[in-house]
Each structure stands twice: as C-alpha cells, then as structure tokens.
Amino acid sequence: MLDKIIFSIVAILVLSFVVAHSVLADTSNSGTDQCPTAPTSLKTIRNSTTTATIYWSKPSLSGSHDIVGYRIESKLAGTTTYADVVSDTKSNSTKFIQNAGLISGKSYVYRISAINSKCTNPPTSDEQLLSNTIITNISSAPTSTQQTKTVPGSPSGLTTMAISGTQVSLTWNAPTNVGGSPILGYKIESKKGTDSFTILVKNTNNTIQSYSNSGLTPSATYTYRVSAINSVGVGDPSGEASVTPKDNDKPILTATAISPTSIYLSWIAPSQTYHQSINGFKLEEKQGDSYKLIKDNIGPVNGYLVTNVLTGKSYTYVVSAVFSAGASPKSNEASATPLTTSVIPPGVSTTPSQISGGVSNNDPNSILKSQQDEMQRKIQEAKDAMSKLSGKTDSEKAIAAREAAQKANEMANKNATDAIKKRIAESQARKQAPIDTAVSTTTEKLVNSTKYKPKTVEEARQLAEQAKQKALAQQDSPDSAKQKQSQKDKARQQMEAEKAAAWDKAKKALESMKNNPKK
Fold it and tell me: pTM, whole model, 2 decimals?
C-alpha cells in the first residue's frame, strides 16, 4: 500500500514538471527550434510599368534568434505556383524594391516569410494583390495597397474682369489635386442674371488658365464657374465669380516673370477712347509712392519685355494709352518677382502684336470731353488725397469753396466748348457761302467808303472788279494766313487759361479744406 502511494506522488511530480516546463517553453519563446511568426501588414506600391516597392511589418515574435532576412515570393494572379522574388534579403529591412521581372498589364500576388538562423517560417496568409493596370501613383510611404486615378479637384482663385461693354476676361488657378493624371483641359459654364448655368466651353483642350468671353450684353450681370478635366473625367466646379460688362477708359495690365532677369508686360487697350486713335502706350515703373518713366511711347502694341531686372526683387508697373490730345488714366498696378526658377508659363505669348487704335477722329467735342474727364479725375484724386490727410469731415467753408471751384470749372468748360463750336460754325459758314455774295458784299463796302462816285456803268463795273481783286489778294496774303493762325492760337490759349484758372480754384479750395478742417 505504501509503495502505491509513493508511486502516485512521484508520477504527479513528474507530470507537474513536464507541464511547467512546457508552459515555460511556450511563454519564453526560447526553444531551440522556435521559428519567427509571420510578417504582417504587407503592402505594395506600383512605381512604374515594370517595378514595384513592397512594404511589411516585422513579426511579433522573432523565435529563438534575431531575424536576419526575409524570403519574398510572388505569382501571377489566377495561378497556383509561387516563385522566389528573392530567397533571402539578408537584411532585417521591411522594405524591398522589385526592379525586374514584372510584366506590364499583369497582376501579382505576394507573400513573405521571416528568416532567423534556425528556420524560415511558412509564408504569411496576408497576400496582397498588385495590379499593374490600376496602381499608377508613386508614394514614399505605404498609404494604401492600391492607389487609383480619380477626377481632379476644383480650380481655385476664379476672377473676372470687364474688358469692354461686350467682353469679359476669366482667370483661375489649377487644382492642387490632379487625381493622379495630368490636366487635359477645362470646362467653363456661365449664366446671365438669375438664369441656370449652361456650358460655355465643354473642353478647352489645353492647360491655359484664362478665357475671354465676348458678344455679351452691356450692363447685364454674368456669372461663371470652371471645372478641371483629366483622363478620368470632369472634376467638381470652382467657386462662382460674377461680372458686369462695361467700357474701360484705361488699359488692363498683366506682369509675368518669364526668366530670372526679365518680366513680360501685356495689356488690353481701353475700349473707351472718346473717338480718338491710340498712338501708343506710356510705361512707368513704381518706385516708392511715385512713378519713374520707362518709355514715353512704346507704340500701338499690346506688350513689352523688361530686361536686366534683379532676381528676387518685386517690380510694379502701370501703362497709359497715348492719344493725340493727351493720355488715358493709368492702368491697374501689376507686379512680378523674377525667381531663379522663373520660366514662360504655358500658353503665354511674349511676342507683342499691333492693336487697333480706335476711330481716327479730330472731333473737337470728343477731344474736349477727354480733357474734361482727365481734369475731373485729377480733381477727384486731389480731393481723395486731401481727405486722407485730414481724416475729418469737410467744413461748411470748405464745402462752399469746393462748390464755387466746381462751378467755375464748369463755366470754363462751357466757355471753351462754346468757343470751339463757334469756330466750327464759322468755318462751315465760310465753306458754304457763295463767292459772289462775299465779293458783292465786299465791293459794296468799298464803293460806299470811297469818295469817288462812278458816273457811268462802266466805271462802276471797273471799280467793283478792283475791289474784288483787292479782297482776293488780302484773303490769300501771308499776313491774312498769319492773322487766322493767330486767332486760332489766341482761342486755344484762352481755353487753356480758363482750364488752368478752374484747376487753380479747385486746388485753392482743397487747400482751404485741408487748412480749415471741421473740428
């Protein structure tokens, strides 16, 4: 009986030792034949039509020894047999680039095994599909197993500008997300007033980020939106931008850095020229708060190349249209900064072209209107400057002085207009008056003024003929031509004096407003 008890005790002790040893061996992972567990998180990124990058995470347990490499296998999708991509990477890196062996248009399945000094673990069941026809984006990190093409994002920065009473210009920025495929063109939609959007351009078929829309109704409001297009399709539209076509009395200027040391200036001529022809354009560069003249008259072209500018420095320019009777208001300010990477943008032409200079007309009323508008613009600029300096509301005295100056200016303009109309009427009357009437009138005056009284009809005829010849001689004499020119000069000087007087009164009124602001 005692022998049986002792045997039972020994058996229990042996069994306990075996179980404890087995548990200890399993939890310590230190057995002499222990293999690494399977790698996880296998991912693939397509680099080109024949290369791919494979990523994975190391096994959670490395076995009895450190991992010294990995075995990578692959097979064609739909087949059963794996082949080694590499039997042993001989590295503990969890990234591998396959530079050969892939066939464009085929799909592949991969598996990976970890290797230590004792064994290679059976391949992971985490098999990943690599499609050579869908995966096209290249990534420096395994963000996803497959990266597919999508439609592009929305363009940004859509702006509109009125070029004339019937034409507007659109500009925008390309989308930051192109959807994994190059932009091929843009879709442009528009609507008039509260109407629904309609397609203006289905596909521009180019990457130029601007468009000009003409044939519009003056004073009507138009709204636009733009969508980008790639090989997948049309993306979402941009934000909306509205504009009302109207005539411009000044150029619209754009500045573009086309190299590290040059800037190309392009502009659109003013649509309102008051029936005057454009003889050219004046170019100025802004320096501080003033402008430096670059070219007094570039000619009737729509562009100019500025060279020898400093890389990294910002430059600002304005242009004015040059007429026979003066110049248009300055254009908008346009700035550009040449960089070491500056190149000619796609679709931008740097070859100036001739512009149509408007209607060639010396109509005095049109010329005077242009001069009046220019004077009013200068007066308004002076008012704005004075108001900005004072920062206060006009006093009653300043308001009265300004109104007086304005009335004086209006009177001067009226007098000048009347003088021009009078000269035009006199000129037209002289051209239309019959010669015989002028001669008989002159003859009658001469006959009545002489002391000699003709006694016969023949003597009267001779006297009239002499008076006629004398009048013609006086009309064609150099002295007469000088007298006419003198009268024209005198009238012009009078008009300029009246304009100067009006401007002087306006300046004095503004000075009074500045010196006596309302407290």
Answer: 0.41
Of the three residues 291, 317, 336, the one that is the final residue of a domain is 336
414 shares its domain with 441: yes
Query: 330 in a domain, yes or no?
Result: yes
Structure tokens at 46: 């397509």
Q: Which residues pair with 264 in a beta bridge?
A: 256, 305
Are 47 and 79 part of one and the same domain? yes
Token output for 173:
């920025």
d(CA 207, CA 31): 65
Q: Per residue in 94-130, is it b (16+ CB within 10 Å) or e — as a string? A: bebebeeebeeeeebbbbbbbbbeebbbebbebebeb
Domain containing residue 400? 363-519
Residues 320 and 392 in one domain: no
Strand order from edge to edge, sheet including 156-162: 156-162, 168-173, 210-213
Question: Three-class SS string for 26-69?
Answer: HHHCCCCCCCCCCCEEEEEEECCCCCEEEEEECCCCCCCCCCCE
62 and 197, same domain (yes or no): no
Last residue of a domain, one of 211, 243, 275: 243
CATH of the domain at 87: 2.60.40.10
Number of domains in the chain: 4
Claim to verify: residue 116 and residue 168 sit in the same structural domain: no
Q: Secondary structure of 156-204 in the HEC alphabet? A: EEEEEEECCCCCEEEEEECCCCCCCCCCCEEEEEEEECCCCCEEEECCC
Specify whether 368 is located in the same domain as 396. yes
Contacts of 216 (CB under 8 A, 6+ apart): 165, 166, 167, 168, 222, 245
**Closest by CA position to 238, among listed 130, 136, 158:** 158
| Whole-number pLDDT of residue 482 | 67
| 237 and 257 assigned to the same domain | no
Cα separation, 179 vs 192, in Å, equals 31
Within-domain flag for 3: no
Pairwise CA distance, residues 344 & 154, whole Å:
24
Half-sphere exposure of 300 (CA within 13 A, CB side): 10
Domain annotation covers residue 326: yes
**pLDDT tens digits, one per residue of 257-312:** 999 999 999 999 988 887 888 889 999 999 888 899 999 999 999 999 999 999 99
Q: What is the average pLDDT across 453-458?
A: 67
Distances (CA, A) of 493 to 365, 412, 481, 488, 498: 17, 13, 18, 9, 9
Which residues lie closer than 8 Å to 408 by C-beta, 6 or more apart?
501, 502, 505
